[in-house]
Amino acid sequence: MASQSTYGVHAELNVRIETRDGIELATDIYRPADPQTGEPVDESRPVLLDRTPYDRTGGRLRHGEWYASRGYVVAIQDVRGRFDSDGEFYIHANEAKDGADTVDWLSKREYCDGQVATLGTSYGAWVQSALATQDPNNLAGMFVNMGAANGRKKTFRHNGAFELRWLCWALTLGGGFAHESLADPDIQQQFADVDVREILADSPIKRGESPLATLPGYEQWTFDIMETGNTSTDLWKNPGLNFERHYDNSADVPTVYAGGWYDSYTGATCDNFVELGNRKDADHYLLMGPWTHLARLPGGHDHSDALLFPPLSWEHPTAGDLAFGDAAARKYRETRLRFFDQYLQGGDGWKTQPRVEYFLMGTGDGHRTDDGLLFHGGEWRNADTWPPEGTEMTRYYIHNDGTLSSMKPKADVSTTTFNFDPTDPVPTIGGNTSSYLTYEPRDESVRAHPLGDRNIIDFAGRGGYDQQTDQDTFGATPPYGPLADRDDVLTFRTPPLEQPVDIAGPIRVRIYGETDGQDTDFTAKLIDEYPASETHPDGYALNISDSICRGRYRGYRQEPDLLEPGVVYEFYMEPYDTANRFKQDHRIRLDISSSNWPRFDVNQNTGGKLYGDTNPRVAENTIHHNNEYATHIELPVWSANT
Questions:
Q1: What's the distance, Cα to Cα, between the start and end of the chain in Å?
Q2: Would you say residue 303 has pLDDT above 80?
Q3: pLDDT 10s digits, 337-368
Q4: Burial (Cβ within 10 Å: 0-12, 13-18, ≥19) of residue 577
Q5: CB atoms within 10 A of CB 186
Q6: 117 contacts: CB under 8 Å, gap ≥ 6
Q7: How is the chain split among helix, strand and coil, in percent rounded to 5?
Q8: 421: number of CA atoms within 13 Å, CB side?
Q9: How far, in Å, are 141, 600, 622, 632 from residue 557 at the CA level?
């Protein structure tokens, strides 16, 4: 049973916490108080720390008050260089030391009982893992919701490619609320007026030719992550950007890693749980729902302040075009409270929590809900490990007739060739995305209509969708229709399944391919293909998970190694973990191509600059599906009888 609201709340605002290099970080402290007098209680209490780049005031005060009324001291802090905190903001670079310094400072206050735990989502999850790499004294637990593991491998960059969401973030929630923008409406106006969709369509951008030029520090870190692929640089060694490198030295404290199957951090969340859970003695938990990174507000638009203080997708059992049923929803604050009560205050509300709890999607019947969503459905399952016991990694091979099966190809020679034109990339339709945002154009100035009140458009979608374009699909041109109809999308599918196939765990893809140039990309997308029905006369191609591999960084190379034309290489990918039931009569489908834009930046096929190449060439790319080079996807098939 979680603790109840029994206290008043005393707030001390804009407390300045000094870091080791003299920078002061603005922090609001909420303390349990006598409900009659409003004076803080004398008894010391555990402290919960929330560090954010999204303004500690406003929406966050609500959960500060909520936890304080239940007996916790809550510290909510603007990270360095954002809102009221001093210093220069360089994304994630200072969070490890700043976070550890804050834990140390809080643990020495008279109101702290010596225990400091952390909580937060997205950037607020990054900063927890970052400070944990410093193993600070008095860190007592973490609830890490939807955060990274290795920024080069699966977040800023993805197997060599760049996730363009970070350029979008820099141009909206980043640059729009930078110190300079908040101080100068003329600068903020430039970010209010920019259409990020036009920036992406005209990319690559150049230094000095976008609104980022008004913010030299923001422009610098944006180009650093777009242009830097090598692990030899300090950027990818920084403990604020790459926790994986520091696993062995990280804090050993009870931790929950939580996320969603359509979150932009799904793979990293599962990686953190598996690797740290195996290395550490303290209790570690994995909690995965069918959620996107953040929930969407009704109507397809959000306000900027809703993005700064978003509705958590935990409490909205939908993802894109999918509905999962009310059982998929979870109370975010209450779940975290049960965890903290047990590990900080000796409660028992977390006692029955399984080590792994995950939502198996896909048990629904596919009807259209009253809201017009496809009812994919699902159910919660428990396990002791990830992947769950009873899971067997099973290979499904592609064949020259377009089939996908567990039988390995027998032919000595069998290939399929397609042309990949970087000027006409395959459009992104949902998936594990976030931050593909732009402000809705308005005639008023930011003085008349503040940026925080403006509608903001999410133009790539998040979650599950039928993989076909229409007039609203960003990057698509007529004739609209299924992505599978494109000449540069190769589709391989099983026959209709005679019985359901449940998968739960990591996914692996090995494409054996070649190209006629020095570099190219290959992409893979796992599809749950619904059969034709009265509701869906043409069927429904539901995206489950996807990935990409940039040739020069194949095999997670630390340094680039350009390709030789005509040589067959293995392009290894790790689409994000998932849990899904492919029902009877559905098909398991694998789509292979060379682009997925704007989820990933587009390879220009020249072997030139990693970002900034302006001379695209059409590549002739060939996929092998023969006995020697057997392209396949490896799925974590779960069986109750195993």
A1: 35
A2: no
A3: 999 999 999 999 999 999 999 999 999 999 99
A4: buried
A5: 11
A6: 46, 47, 48, 49, 139, 140, 141, 142, 143, 340, 343, 344
A7: 25, 30, 45
A8: 5
A9: 34, 18, 22, 21
Q: What is the pTM of this model?
A: 0.97
In a 13 Å sphere around the CA of 250, the CA atoms on its Cβ side amount to 32
What distance in Å separates the CA atoms of residue 58 and residue 18, rounded to the nearest whole number? 23
Q: CA 389 to CA 21: how far, in whole Å?
A: 48
Contacts of residue 454, defined as CB under 8 A and 6 or more positions apart, other chains included, come to 192, 303, 304, 439, 440, 442
Other C-beta atoms closer than 10 Å to the C-beta of 535 total 13
Sheet with 540-550, side-by-side order of all strands: 490-493, 587-593, 521-530, 540-550
Burial 347-357 (b: 16+ CB within 10 A, else e): bebbeebebbb
Distance CA 259, CA 261 (A): 7
Handedness of CA 373, 379, 385, 388 (dihedral sign): negative
Nearest Cα to 360, choosing from 387, 381, 389, 391? 381
**Environment class of 359 (CB within 10 Å of its CB; exposed 0-12, middle 13-18, buried 19+):** buried
> What's the 3-state SS for 79-94?
CCCECCCCCCCCCCCC
Mean pLDDT, the chain, rounded, equals: 95
DSSP string, 523-552: EEEEEEEEPP-SS-TT-EEEEEEEEEEEGG
Comparing CA positions, the residue from 168, 156, 200 lying closest to residue 475 is 200
Amino acid, res. 220: Q
User: pLDDT tens-digit profile of 442-501?
Assistant: 999 999 999 999 999 999 999 999 999 999 999 999 999 999 999 999 999 999 999 999
Q: Which two tokens stand for residue 463?
A: 């979650």
Question: Partners of 338 in the beta sheet?
Answer: none
Alpha-carbon span 13 to 26, nearest angstrom: 8
Q: Which stretches does DSSP call E strand in 104-138?
A: 112-121
Element (H, E) at 420: strand 415-420
CA distance 402 to 492: 5
Host H or E run for residue 572: strand 569-573
Q: Residue 60 and residue 214: Cα distance in Å, rounded?
A: 29
In the block, residue with structure tokens 């927890």: 128
By CB atoms closer than 10 A (0-12, 13-18, 19+), residue 113 is middle
What is the tens place of the pLDDT at every residue in 168-204? 999 999 999 999 999 999 999 999 999 999 999 999 9
Per residue in 101-143, pLDDT (tens digit) is 999 999 999 999 999 999 999 999 999 999 999 999 999 999 9
Give the residue from 264, 308, 83, 309 showing the smallest Cα distance to 173.
Answer: 308
* Residue 300 pLDDT greater than 90, yes or no: no
Cis peptide before 388 (omega within 30 of 0): no
Answer whether the bond into residue 211 is a cis peptide, omega within 30°. Answer: no
User: 485: which DSSP letter?
Assistant: G
74 in Cβ contact with 67 (< 8 Å): yes
Give per-residue burial for 309-343: e unless 16+ CB within 10 Å, then b: bbebbbebbbbbbbbbbeebbbebbebbbbbbbbb
| Contacts (Cβ under 8 Å, ≥6 apart) of 111 | 29, 31, 40, 44, 45, 47, 73
Written as one letter, the residue type at 390 is G
